[in-house]
Amino acid sequence: MRVKRNGRSEKLTVTADGDGLVSHAGTALLCAVADRLGLTDALDRELEELFERVPRHAAGRVLRDLAVAVADGGEHLADIAVLRDQPALFGPVASDSTAYRLIERIAAAPGALERVRAARAETRARVWRRFDGARPREIVIDIDASLLSSHSEKQGAAGNFKGGYGFHPMLAYLDHSGEALAGVLRPGNAGANTAADQIAVLDAALAQLPQRVAARWPVLMRADSAGATHELMAFCRDGRVRFSVGYDLTEPVRAAIDALPETAWQPTITQDGHWRQDGAMVAEITALLDLAAWPDRSRVLVRRERPHPGAQLSFTDAGGHRFQAVLTDQSDADIAYLEARHRGHARVEDRIRTGKDTGMGKLPFREFAMNEVWLELSLIAQDLLAHTRLLCLTGELARCEPKRLRYRLLHTAARLTAHARQARLRLDRRWPWAGELAAAFARLSALPAPTR
């Protein structure tokens, strides 16, 4: 075979006689993060009651390996082979059948999935307590639903409002770090504004927060207009959770907008606090509406802006402006800040999109309960990536989405050598991100060992 290098054609010879080479060397960082943060041990303790005898492969280790394989880009249970095929780097890894039986056992055992979630909450509390910068400055939980397609008959799959077929999970993310707090798997025909499901996912998300933090720090829940349900707002008020949700442009809302004087409008601000220069404006119409049906101190803010060139106006647009309304019970006097804060809810769309690229996009099992476990594995994988970026990476890499992180770090090849009972990964010094990967391992080693 001939290839061109430096403008010259050269003969390429391929042989299978290399020694000590490993691929996906950066993926070992995720395994080390799970162990260092105590996630592996926490999962093992929570699931030990599932077995009468000590299994050959500890349950926590198996779940860790599955979550790491998913974070590495795996879409099916068999993708755990990416770890199993490199025992020198990852150690003994369970077979596909062993991993399948564990997921089957978790799905069948009452309360087992809740114990997995408890292990996740324990790990999160430890991370927030022990590592500087890990605890968010403010706790903002974004909830949203998203459609997952299914191309085969699976238990619980159903047609959705877009004409597709599959599932419609409800998800909750922490805005500060992108941590995947909770997910509730639902059939495809479940509604986006089903209050019981919204309450269930928010309740599960709140259970993931350390108790001392949740009790002392204000919590804000954000959602689009599907979240403007009386039951969800009442749940937030009972749980002392602030809310900021989209609000439909009903006839009373449009009438209130028309009644506003021009002086009531003020410029909006960007996410980093600068005044916007594109003509977007915000105003409050609370005094012009009857909000008696909503929790007391509820407010409605309205944003107006010119649609971008080529956009089609709808019947709710007036005077060449597009309007959006927000229902909130936050007491801040700065309505521009409140409107910008709500607009940050759009980031959840990116979190869900990257979540679908991290195991959530394809639910591999026929049984609904086993797919619930798989969804939880995807949330663990997303948390591993979030904690790795938070604790081990800096600069642009700390903001990379999973696909780019895999290319730059996780899928890096290396030479593995052993000497004096020590293993050493030798990265190619010409790889542009070799130094960053080595520094990430060094930062992880400097973190304190986990304690219960």
Structure write-up:
α1 (27-36) crosses α3. A hairpin with a 2-residue loop joins β16 and β17. This protein has a domain at 16-113 and 364-446. A 9-stranded mixed β-sheet has the order 9-8-4-10-11-15-14-13-12, sandwiched between helices. Strands 3-16-17 form a 3-stranded antiparallel β-sheet, with no helix packed on it. The protein is α+β, with helices and mostly antiparallel strands and 452 residues long. The longest helix is centred in the C-terminal third of the chain and has 25 residues, at 368-392. It is built from 16 helices and 17 strands. The model has no long low-confidence stretch (mean pLDDT 91).
Can you tag this structure with a few keywords?
452 residues, 9-stranded mixed β-sheet, 17 strands
List the helices and strands and how they pair.
Layout: E1 2-5, E2 8-11, E3 21-22, H1 27-36, H2 39-47, H3 59-71, H4 81-84, H5 87-90, H6 96-108, H7 112-130, E4 139-145, E5 148-149, E6 158-159, E7 165-167, E8 170-174, E9 180-184, H8 195-207, H9 211-216, E10 219-223, H10 230-238, E11 241-247, H11 251-259, E12 266-267, E13 281-284, E14 299-305, E15 322-328, H12 335-343, H13 347-360, H14 368-392, H15 402-410, E16 414-419, E17 422-427, H16 434-446
Parallel strand pairs: 4-10, 10-11
Antiparallel strand pairs: 1-2, 3-16, 4-8, 5-7, 6-7, 8-9, 11-15, 12-13, 13-14, 14-15, 16-17
Helix pairs in contact: 1-3, 1-14, 1-16, 2-3, 2-7, 3-14, 6-14, 7-14, 8-10, 13-14
